[in-house]
Specification:
By secondary structure, this protein is an alpha+beta fold. It has helices spanning 2-27, 84-113, 128-132, 151-160, 214-217, 237-246, 292-319, 330-348, 350-373, 380-393, 399-429; strands spanning 32-46, 52-66, 120-123, 139-143, 146-147, 168-174, 177-183, 186-192, 195-197, 206-209, 225-229, 232-233, 254-260, 263-269, 272-278, 281-283. Strands 5-4-6-7 form a four-stranded antiparallel β-sheet. A four-stranded antiparallel β-sheet has the order 12-11-13-14. Helix 7 packs across helix 9.
Length: 430
């Protein structure tokens, strides 16, 4: 059942994307030859004249096939016969509809359980924030130059970018007034192994490796599953968390056993002394109900947060903080959606399960919108780039050149998709 629900969520997100292309094409006078739900062999279709609406075998994805889209066809109603500005609108409509879907889903979530405004919940006495005058209840609206929509946004920035040993700049709202603060962070020194994991995971899987850290030096990688530390069996991430609480790192070597693709390994990790930098204050991550006007504002903020999360994750991938193995394709996404649905249903019932599915929908829809806007061949962003070049040159790019460009990109995407699919399967069975 959970697989069916996960596939429905994924199909809705993709079909809304294709619906954006479809409606923009129709409004631009471009003939849409077929609008398909799912992929693969055709099961059945409706409509003989104009657009055929088809249902295909494999329940993932969809497509909007326009007349002469990838051909040198300038006949009436073809994609190439429309003005460059109309074609741009058609290409951008897909990602735009993904953002609209994400916003609509975010509004429902906020309407039911509220938002998480980034309010200060505590200020460490004696810290730079305390001395500067930051107070509990202040709502953070800017953090080190970043506009802040919710508490999770600060968490994302500090987790992906880290907190640097430099002045912290905050803009807060207090009693309707904006106040600006600049202060020194809190700096502590402690031994660390240099990796990330999620305490809620069933297995102690490493979700990230810090470049230059002790784990990397010991040869460990993202995706490795820790099974033993210094002779203590580790079955879950909670076990790992509890072990380090009871045995804080003091620089002594730690013998770690782990599995990689199901194969057992053993290594010795020597923790390194690191400078821990924090802001000196904590902030809210809990949800609270809001008025209608505030909910709309936080709805836009939620979509902006998901977009920034996607972009920052991509930047971390490029910088090497995460590997391609951390990416998930349809198999991995369906698995995660299914797990989220089942866990939420068991813990809070059907209402919680539906809200969690909506939240996954916001993330996936915003993610799909962003990824499709990247200027990569075969993606909407790649097509838009060629149209932009044509608009600037006032002359279309050779269809042969553009076709070769997109074909090469498609081949690369297929190789990547196969690699990610294999990685997803390995993760499921390991």
């Amino acid at each position: 059942m959970r697989i069916i629900i996960a596939l429905i969520v994924l199909d809705i997100v993709v079909c809304i994307h294709e619906l954006g292309h479809f409606l923009a094409a129709k409004a631009s006078g471009i003939v849409v030859e077929e609008f398909s739900i799912s992929m693969g062999p055709k099961l059945f279709s409706l409509g003989k004249k104009g657009t055929r609406f088809s249902l295909r075998l494999f329940p993932i994805g969809g497509s909007c096939a326009m007349k002469g889209e990838d051909e040198d066809d300038n006949t009436e109603g073809s994609f190439q016969s429309a003005s460059v500005w109309k074609r741009m609108a058609v290409v951008l409509a897909g990602p735009f509809f993904n953002f609209v879907l994400a916003f609509a889903a975010a509004l429902i979530i906020i309407g039911v359980i509220g938002a998480d405004p980034a309010s200060v919940t505590a200020v460490e006495e004696g810290s730079g924030a305390y001395e500067a005058g930051l107070q509990e209840g202040d709502r953070i609206v800017r953090y080190n130059g970043n506009r802040i929509a919710n508490g999770r946004e600060i968490y994302m920035i500090t987790q992906l970018d880290g907190v640097r040993d430099e002045k912290v700049r905050l803009t807060v709202l207090r009693d309707g007034k904006k106040l600006k603060y600049t202060f020194d962070p809190v700096v502590e020194e402690r031994y660390m192994a240099g990796y990330y994991y999620t305490p809620e995971n069933e297995t102690a899987v490493i979700t990230g490796i810090i470049e230059g850290g002790a784990m990397e030096a010991a040869g460990m990688q993202t995706g490795d599953v820790i099974t033993e530390v210094n002779g203590t069996k580790i079955e879950t991430s909670r076990d790992l968390e509890q072990y380090w609480e009871e045995h804080p790192m003091d620089g002594s070597p730690a013998t770690i056993k782990y599995r990689r693709y199901g194969i057992p390994y053993e290594t010795v990790v020597i923790p390194t002394l690191n400078r821990q930098v924090t802001g000196g204050f904590s902030y809210n991550l809990a949800r609270e109900k809001l008025g209608a006007a505030s909910s709309i504002g936080y709805g836009f903020g939620e979509v902006n947060y998901m977009i920034r999360l996607t972009l920052k994750s991509l930047a971390s991938l490029i910088r090497g903080r995460f590997s391609v193995r951390d990416l998930s394709g349809p198999i991995g996404i369906v698995s995660v959606i299914g797990e989220v649905y089942e866990e939420a249903k068991e813990e809070g019932g059907m209402a919680d399960a539906l809200l969690n599915l909506l939240n996954m929908g916001v993330l996936i829809s915003a993610n799909l919108g962003v990824m499709n806007l990247l200027p990569f061949p075969a993606l909407d962003g790649g097509r838009f780039l060629f149209l932009l070049i044509a608009a600037i040159r006032r002359k279309p790019v050779s269809q042969r050149v553009e076709g070769a460009f997109h074909y090469a990109g498609f081949i690369l995407l297929m190789f990547l998709a196969v690699f990610i699919a294999i990685s997803d399967v390995v993760k499921l069975v390991s």
